[in-house]
Each structure stands twice: as structure tokens, then as C-alpha cells.
Design goal:
Layout: H1 17-33, H2 36-48, E1 57-62, H3 68-77, E2 81-88, H4 91-99, E3 103-106, E4 119-125, H5 133-146, E5 147-156, H6 160-172, H7 177-188, H8 193-202, E6 209-213, E7 217-223, H9 225-228
Parallel strand pairs: 1-2, 1-4, 2-3, 4-5
Antiparallel strand pairs: 5-7, 6-7
Helix pairs in contact: 1-4, 2-3, 6-7
Length: 229
């Protein structure tokens, strides 16, 4: 099964705000039901395993959508998480994140407004498959430089069973037609584990491993050279 190059409706920053709001909210629901939140928890827990102390942590969520991944991190880290920031190119995303108590930034994931060593943890949750491969590699390179502690990447695992399952679930849940169409295309644009591992390795990160998780999800996490050094 080849990865299609077609763009999703949500890739268009000019998508109608009402539609974007609905789709982003429904994506948050599917992350609860189909393993997205569990995949992020797995990556964050593994990243922080064995870390001594309880120092404050800052998090940047790339392509944050409704902010559901950031909120999951807030619940997991509790008082340690002092300044969650969510970046997305949709105005609807900014409004949803602000309502959830998260600082939003409307911007381009390919032109990150962050300096090296400026955040503790970077999250890229179900975003990488939206980008052409060279941009995905560049994003990982920039985040590895920006994060003092580490990076967590979660994404979709390409599978014919996942496509059939989401198609059926979308009809049962009566998801918006854009959510269903984008979701099916997202799965087709997802990765095999080896493909995601190659992208991360090409970004200069040789210390990450990719894990298959329930719900046809992939998770990669690594501590940056700043943390190791």
C-alpha cells in the first residue's frame, strides 16, 4: 500500500472555521477511542522514566489541533508542567486551546518560532504524515535542537484493517464527512514502523526507537543530546 500525496482538508489553513472546529473536536474524540491518547502517554512515560527530581517542565505541542494532546500531557505531568504551548496553523485550534487553558500560537510547523534549548519537551502527535518527507525530516531536526529534555512523536500506522475499521467507526459515530474523509486519507498517508524510523534517523537522531501500539499507532521518543550531555 503506497502513501498517497493528496492533501487533506485540514491541511488548508483557510478551511472554514466552523468546519475546522468540528473536525478538530472529532479528532480529539477519535484519539480517546482509538489509541491516540494512550500512544502519547506511552511515549511521555517512557521518555521520563528514571528521571530524577521533579523540576518544572515546559512543553511545545506541534500541530496541536484542539489541544487534546497538550491536555493529556498536563494531566500526566501535573504540577510539573508549568507552561504548555500549542502551535497550529488554524485559528479554530487557537480558540480551542485557549479555552482549555493552553497558550496558543498560530504559526507554520515548517517555520517554528522556537530557538535551540528553548523548551523541555516537544510533542508531535499525529502530525508528521501531513508533511512531505523533506519537511518532516527538517521538523524533527529542529525539534531535536529545541528540546532540552526530549521529543515524543506519535503517528498512524498504515494498514488496510485500520482503514476498514475507521470507515465503519466513522459511520457509526456519525462523524462529519470531512473528518471521515481526512481520517481515511490520514491512515493511507501513515507510516510503516521502518519508514518512520528512517525519517527520524535521516534527521540525525540515532537514539530513537519506534514502537507499534494499539489502534494502529506508532510512537517514537528520545532524550536529546542536551539531556544526555
Amino acid at each position: 500500500m503506497l502513501r498517497p500525496a493528496a492533501a487533506e482538508a485540514l491541511d488548508d489553513r483557510d478551511l472554514d472555521d466552523a468546519v475546522a472546529n468540528t473536525v478538530l473536536s472529532e479528532i480529539a474524540l477519535t484519539n480517546i477511542l482509538f489509541g491516540g491518547n494512550a500512544a502519547l502517554k506511552f511515549g511521555l512515560t517512557r521518555l521520563l522514566r528514571g528521571e530524577a527530581g521533579a523540576s518544572p517542565l515546559s512543553i511545545l505541542d506541534i500541530g496541536a489541533g484542539s489541544g487534546d494532546a497538550t491536555q493529556r500531557a498536563c494531566r500526566l505531568l501535573g504540577d510539573r508542567l508549568t507552561h504548555p504551548i500549542a502551535l497550529d496553523h488554524h485559528r479554530a485550534s487557537a480558540r480551542l486551546c485557549r479555552t482549555g487553558g493552553i497558550t496558543p500560537i498560530v504559526g507554520d510547523v515548517c517555520q517554528l518560532p522556537v530557538r535551540p534549548d528553548s523548551i523541555d519537551i516537544a510533542i508531535v502527535s499525529m502530525v508528521l504524515h501531513h508533511l512531505p518527507r523533506p519537511q518532516a525530516v527538517t521538523l524533527i531536526t529542529h525539534l531535536d535542537a529545541a528540546a532540552r529534555l526530549g521529543v515524543v512523536v506519535t503517528d498512524l500506522r498504515r494498514s488496510a484493517l485500520a482503514i476498514a475499521g475507521f470507515d465503519l467507526a466513522g459511520r457509526i459515530l456519525r462523524l462529519h464527512e470531512v473528518t471521515r474523509r481526512d481520517g481515511l486519507l490520514s491512515i493511507r498517508r501513515g507510516y510503516r514502523a521502518a519508514e518512520l524510523a528512517t525519517i527520524i534517523a535521516d534527521a540525525g537522531v540515532g537514539r530513537a526507537s519506534v514502537h507499534r501500539r494499539p489502534g494502529w499507532r506508532l510512537v517514537a521518543y528520545w532524550r536529546t543530546h542536551h539531556a544526555d550531555g
